[in-house]
Write a structure and sequence with these properties.
The complex is a heterodimer of chains A (118) and B (911).
Chain A lengths: L15 H10 L4 E2 H11 L8 H13 L3 E7 L5 E7 L1 H25 L7
Antiparallel strand pairs in A: 1-3, 2-3
Helix pairs in contact in A: 1-2, 1-4
Chain B lengths: L6 H4 L16 H35 L4 H12 L2 H36 L1 H30 L12 E7 L4 E2 L3 H10 L3 E16 L2 E10 L3 H5 L3 E4 L15 E4 L1 H7 L10 E4 L2 E9 L14 E4 L3 H5 L13 E6 L5 H18 L7 E7 L8 H46 L4 H40 L14 H27 L3 H5 L9 H35 L10 E7 L7 H17 L3 E7 L10 E7 L11 E7 L3 H4 L4 E4 L13 E5 H8 L2 H4 L3 E4 L4 E8 L14 E5 L7 E8 L3 H15 L5 E6 H5 L4 H35 L1 H9 L4 H30 L15 H27 L3 H6 L2
Parallel strand pairs in B: 4-9, 6-8, 15-20, 17-19
Antiparallel strand pairs in B: 1-2, 1-10, 1-11, 3-4, 3-7, 3-10, 5-8, 6-9, 7-8, 12-21, 12-22, 13-21, 14-15, 14-18, 16-19, 17-20, 18-19
Helix pairs in contact in B: 2-3, 2-4, 4-12, 5-11, 5-12, 5-13, 5-22, 6-10, 11-13, 11-15, 11-22, 12-13, 12-22, 15-22, 15-24, 15-25, 16-20, 22-24, 22-25, 24-25
The chains are: A alpha+beta (118), B alpha+beta (911).
């Protein structure tokens, strides 16, 4: 598989891609390419989404009814498949964010033990 | 690549896809999903295309030129196929996508194979031969061991309750013993009693000899067989001796002799001259419990005295019937046997007068001597082994073909690997391709097996046996499953090695268009395959040769009598109303009339036909002056014959004299014994003369003659004591007339018929055939085994020829260039011919040596099936080796000759 030559990037943690996609879709319907571009841009190019993971993830989310898909036109007048967050997807996003916060807090706790809390 | 075709093609995606919303989660949705899958695939392709086009668009907007932008976008996207595959996986779960993949593999394999029809044809044909041969053997095995009783579920697991003498002989039980064992035992959930007999069936003036079973009242319920008309024999038919004159007839007899009369129930027929009321017709397909023999009558055991003329129901000494039972779920044959043994010891303890020489035991159906199983199974086992070996050759052969084909496909495989196909995926694909060939091979094989079984049946059994034979040989689901397993296993076997190699492609090598065999290893593998084929087919041929020579020596064996030019006519006087006095005089008149004819050399009557696989009756003997050792087997085979019997069958008398007219019923009781008996009890034949014995509790009989041993039932039997009684002193209504004559068969048999009819026009002639025809049944195992092995041998030879031919012509093709050079620098055609011929022959010789060594090791297992031939018979070995080597020679000669004719200019220009 071809590797790209962009700045050093971070590997996505297992399971976080779904959350990132749902988060990206919060601002409105997006197509696959735009989602990957958005994630990359918002992470200052650090997070590179492999298409080999992106599309399976999108289709998986669609199957779980967290997103809907429909064909439409982009602002540059190209046909593209747009994904929209569903109400169930929104709830899922909240759940995942919650879990993520807890995880971060827990990992933070381990990395920077706070004696006061001890 | 389609994806690069540009935006123009993107217009194709007109259908906006209904996503799986609302569809998933219900069955209808899933079914729809199946049909929508292709659309979804298109949709995904479209989505990826739009992704790429947007990415390229962005780059163009950034100032790149369109061409570079498109390539960069594609590069950035990564492996399109992998993305598609991964996405597809997320659609329908792993299982569905696997199925889809495999269907795709199948579709692809069929398409590919259609492109090389000759290859596919050869592989399918070769597999059909191998699989067919195995199914044929399997269906025989199925018939004998797995489903011995047609129309009875689980018949293979029935237990057979019998007596075993201390010398290991299996005998029926007496009725009292059977009853006690049945009532006191706990191993069976149901135990029926049965015995087989030939019966005279009177139908007005017509008569017929049929076989039937005398059964206990629970026989039909134990076997689970019903009646298609009327009822079966019931427990209520099993109450008081002589009071249940009812009979159930077989569906076959009903159709054959009663023209499927729907009003048959209630009619009366004469069985052994006693009127029986037909109460029912068995379900079609049921032919009794005797493996491979068709039974036509089922009579209550309570009518034993009326059928046989003497009452044995209360006699503990007379073997009469055996038990047939279903074991309880928590029991086993071994447990049942142990219980029967214990019970029979207790029975003996309660009957102190009884001579202990036998114990009751339970044996599995396949060991039961009542039917063809014990005598056919060893042959079937041998054939199974041979069949497996044949399949091995088949697989080796097909492996070879696959290897050759693989070379031309390396480009294709490399392309697949380059496109990201995993090794397991390639293996699966190649496996599916083999399976696509194996399945029609199996289907054709099933057809072929029917042919092979047809070939077997008439020659070996049906037309020869003195008893109507019906082996349960039919294709059923067991055979189908067997065929499927075989074809999967063989496609794994023949495809495995080549596929492993193929999947390990050397991309660089293929880029360099290197089509020559990689190193020596592939050559070695192919050589090994040919060597193994030669070896195994040699083994098969040796087996076939040994069995064929056994058949030959059994056929020409000295059975102790000369069956040639003897006509045999079987009669039964009883159904026609003869009593003993009139019967005696009829038989005397018959002998006198026949002997007076100019075309008759000699004539005699006998109760039992020799060498027809039917065991003579045996009786307990008491020898004057001989105290049997405890457990000594004192049962003697016995036959009843008229004077001139020994002369008619040309059985030599080694001492004393033949029976004569003067040995009448009021004269001294006499007997003739065979040589074995004379030597066993009196030392020498002459020593036996004048000695006395009692047979079955009768009068003292004086030995007046000693006859040479003959083969009484089968060719392979060991010598056993045998006694002859004169007909005059032991009248039996059912006898067979043997007449030695120089007349041609047809004339003789016609003359015999008319002679009998002139004496009594109403007397039915049960059979009228030549003795050689009747004794041929004794050879049926040999002829069956020889027939199958011959077919196997021929198939093996063809395959070996194909294999060798393939190898040499492949080698020649691979070295076309080399041959060109050799010819160009002056090699002679003869030299080239020798070179390629040598290659084939070398392998042939190595294979032959391996085969001979293997044969020496394996043919020892055949000993039980061989007759008059040593398992290391030099003639068979030499013959088989010559045949195999000749085949190899011819098969290598053709391609070698072709190679030597190569046009050097064309060969060199080719590259």
């Amino acid at each position: 598989m071809e590797q790209n030559t962009r700045p050093p990037r971070l590997e996505l943690l297992q399971g976080t891609l779904d959350m990132l996609i749902l988060q990206t879709l919060q601002w409105g319907p997006q197509h696959g390419y735009a989602i990957s571009q958005t994630i990359r841009a918002h992470s200052s190019e650090a997070l590179q989404v492999e298409t080999g993971s992106l599309y399976p993830a999108l289709h998986r989310l669609q199957k779980q009814k967290w997103v809907k898909a429909s064909w439409g036109l982009t602002e540059t007048n190209q046909r593209a498949k747009f994904y929209t967050l569903t109400p169930a997807g929104k709830k899922q996003l909240l759940r995942e964010r919650d879990r993520w916060e807890q995880l971060i807090a827990a990992i933070g706790g381990v990395l920077n033990p706070n004696p006061a809390k001890g | 690549m389609k994806l690069l075709d540009g935006p123009g093609r993107a217009k194709r995606g007109k259908k906006t896809l209904p996503t799986s919303h609302g569809l998933c989660g219900n069955i209808k949705g899933r079914v729809l999903d199946w049909f929508l899958r292709r659309d979804r695939d298109d949709d995904l392709q479209e989505e990826i295309r739009s992704h790429l086009s947007m990415a390229a668009h962005d780059r163009v907007a950034d100032g790149e030129d369109p061409q570079t932008a498109r390539l960069a976008a594609l590069k950035e996207f990564g492996n399109v196929t992998l993305t598609r595959e991964a996405t597809r996986l997320s659609w329908g779960g792993v299982w569905r996508s696997r199925v889809a993949d495999i269907t795709q593999d199948f579709r692809y394999a069929i398409r590919t194979l259609r492109r090389s029809p000759s290859y596919s044809f050869v592989v399918i044909a070769v597999l059909a031969l191998g699989i067919g041969a195995n199914i044929a053997v399997f269906s025989l095995f199925n018939a004998l061991a797995l489903k011995p009783i047609p129309h009875v579920d689980g018949s293979a697991s029935l237990g057979v309750l019998v007596a075993r003498t201390d010398s290991g002989r299996i005998l029926p039980l007496s009725y009292p013993d059977f009853r006690d064992l049945r009532d006191q035992g706990h191993a069976f959930s149901g135990l029926a009693g049965t015995s087989m007999d030939a019966y005279s069936l009177g139908l007005g003036t017509r008569g017929e000899r049929v076989f039937g079973e005398m059964v206990t009242g629970n026989y039909f319920s134990v076997l689970g067989v019903g009646a298609s008309l009327g009822r079966t024999i019931q427990p209520t038919d099993d109450v008081s001796p002589g009071k249940h004159a009812v009979v159930v007839i077989s569906d076959g007899l009903w159709k054959r002799s009663f023209a499927s009369d729907p009003a048959i129930v209630g009619k009366t027929i004469q069985v052994n001259a006693y009127p029986f009321t037909i109460v029912g017709v068995t379900e079609p397909g049921f032919q009794g419990s005797i493996v491979s023999l068709k039974m036509d009558l089922f009579l209550p055991v309570m009518m034993q005295a009326q059928l046989r003329g003497f009452d044995l129901l209360g006699v503990r000494e007379s073997p009469m019937l055996w038990g047939l039972g279903r074991l309880k779920p928590d029991s086993s044959i071994a447990a049942a046997a142990a219980e029967a043994d214990l019970l029979s010891v207790q029975l003996d303890a309660r009957q102190p007068a009884r001579r202990v020489s036998q114990r009751a035991t339970v044996i599995p159906m396949w060991q039961s001597p009542y039917g063809a199983q014990t005598y056919m199974l060893p042959a079937i086992m041998l054939l199974s082994v041979m069949g497996a070996l044949l399949l091995l050759i088949v697989c080796a052969n097909v492996s070879n073909l696959v290897l050759v084909r693989e070379v031309s496909r390396r480009g294709e495989i490399a392309a697949r690997v380059a496109l990201g196909a995993s090794r397991s995926r390639i293996l699966r694909w190649l496996f599916v391709e083999n399976l696509v060939l194996a399945l029609p091979g199996a289907a054709l094989g099933m057809l072929a097996s029917q042919g092979i079984d047809l070939l077997l049946e008439p020659t070996s059994l049906a037309s020869l046996a003195p008893v109507p034979v019906g082996l349960n040989v039919s294709l059923d689901w067991t055979a189908v499953v067997f065929a499927l397993v075989l074809s999967c296993a063989s496609s794994l076997a023949f495809g495995f090695i080549p596929a492993l190699r193929s999947s390990r492609v050397d991309l660089a090598g293929i880029m360099k268009d290197d089509l020559s065999p990689r190193g020596g290893s592939r050559g070695r593998l192919r050589n090994m395959l040919v060597v193994s084929q030669v070896a195994v087919s040699l083994l098969l041929l040796v087996g076939a040769a040994l069995v064929i020579r056994s058949l030959e020596s059994a056929r020409t064996a000295d059975a102790g009598f000369d069956p040639r030019n003897v006509g045999s006519v079987s009669l039964d006087l009883k159904p026609s109303g003869y009593d003993a006095i009139r019967g005696r005089s009829f038989y005397q008149t018959l002998l006198d009339t026949v002997r007076a004819q100019s075309w008759v050399e000699s004539a005699a009557l006998t109760a039992i036909l020799p060498l027809t696989l039917v065991d003579s009756n045996s009786v307990d003997a008491v020898i004057e002056g001989h105290n049997p050792r405890p457990g000594e087997d004192m049962r003697m085979l016995i036959n009843t014959v008229s004077p001139e019997y020994f002369a008619t069958l040309r059985i030599g008398l080694v001492a004393g004299r033949d029976f004569a007219r003067t040995d009448a019923s009021d004269a001294l009781s006499v007997a003739i014994v065979n040589e074995t008996m004379a030597r066993q009890f009196w030392g020498t034949p002459d020593g036996a003369l004048g000695k006395r014995m009692r047979l079955g509790g009768g009068d003292w009989r004086t030995v007046i003659g000693v006859a040479r041993d003959i083969k009484y039932a089968r060719v392979t039997e060991d010598p056993r004591p045998h006694v002859y009684r004169p007909l005059e002193q032991n009248y039996l209504p059912a006898m067979t007339l043997h007449v030695r004559s120089r007349d041609p068969e047809a004339v003789l048999l016609a003359r015999l018929r008319s002679t009998v009819q002139a004496l009594d026009p109403n007397l039915p002639i049960l059979t009228a055939r030549m003795l050689t025809e009747l004794t041929r049944v004794a050879l049926s195992v040999f002829s069956m085994a020889a027939g199958v092995l011959m077919v196997f041998g021929v198939i093996a030879m063809i395959l070996t020829a194909l294999g060798t031919y393939g190898l040499v012509s492949y080698a020649a093709k691979q070295s076309t260039h080399e041959i060109g050079i050799r010819i160009a620098i002056g090699a002679s055609r003869a030299e080239l011919l020798r070179r390629f011929l040598g290659r084939g022959l070398r392998l042939g010789v190595v294979g032959a040596i391996c085969g001979l060594v293997g044969s020496v090791a394996i043919t020892r297992l055949l000993t039980g099936l061989l007759y008059g031939v040593s398992p290391t018979d030099a003639t068979s070995f030499a013959g088989a080796a010559t045949m195999v080597l000749t085949t190899v020679l011819v098969a290598s000669l053709i391609p070698a000759w072709r190679a030597s004719r190569t046009d050097p200019i064309a060969a060199l220009r080719h590259r």
